[in-house]
Amino acid sequence: MGRSPCCEKEHTNKGAWTKEEDERLINYIKAHGEGCWRSLPKAAGLLRCGKSCRLRWINYLRPDLKRGNFSDEEDELIINLHSLLGNKWSLIAARIPGRTDNEIKNYWNTHIKRKLFSRGIDPQTHRPLKSTTTTNSTNNKNSRLDTKRSPDFQLEEQNYSFLQVQPEFMISHMIKKENNSSIIKVGGSSDSTEDSNSSSGVTTELEVYPDHKLVNLELSIGLPCESLVSSINNLKQAKQQEQEEVVTHQLFETSTTPTSSAPVSVHEAACLCYKLGFKNSQACSSCNAMEKTVTSDNLHRFY
DNA sequence: AAAGTGGTCAACCGCTCAGCT
DNA sequence: AAGCTGAGCGGTTGACCACTT
Question: Which stretches does the entry tag as region Disordered (predicted)?
């Protein structure tokens, strides 16, 4: 369809921002607030593209930005969030106060990837490197319909695929908590090269939740039980429309460091439910109807 | 000391999406 | 319904710097 450029490139500066440009941008936004980036450069007297102004403000000039090195807690949080959300840097950044998507993306590519490799973990799949080959082939199979299978089987396989990978996935991203103890351990296995299933003694996810020895770190993934069956039925009905897959993200949040002296911020529970593959992603309506409770662990949960 | 190499990160590019007309 | 526009996102680039040879 073709689009007009967001600005007249021949009349705009590019490259690094000068101190004067920064000051102009800061002063303008302080006076007029964010928004209307297209008209901002002219109004602020800047020879910059609106997109460039927005990026400079969001990634560098915003007063609430936390500069400096990432803490270990932030590292682990990013890893956990990435395991759930993938390269959705803006979603990850939204969960980490003071950090920008660009900053997290850069940090991921320059530090965390290496860190995970050194732990023997594939940064993309969050699985042990030695099983990456077979894992990828499995994931690829699930992410694309196998035309040799019956349509019903394909849909069910797709829908359950997240459950099939769930046990290993969950174990590596849960806090293991001793009963009646404040001592927690991150990860299901102290040895990342060891098979997490065998080392943890947890063989299926059904054994994970009921015994309460494993509690959710701050993130979990999976369909609410009661909505699972109806989701499958809905999928079957929708199969005539197009290929689709449903992934439900249910996000719980609590403190990752209960023993820390820093104040613990406990936010409202957020349910991130996305129906991937539909034209317009819509929040899971069933979660809105669910009752939220706060457990003794300060966990916000939906039931 | 100079050249080469690799790491870091700010900035840019191309694209998608949602809202408006 | 279709087209246009602004905003935002993720991937990529390139300048800069530190370290090594």
Answer: 122-151
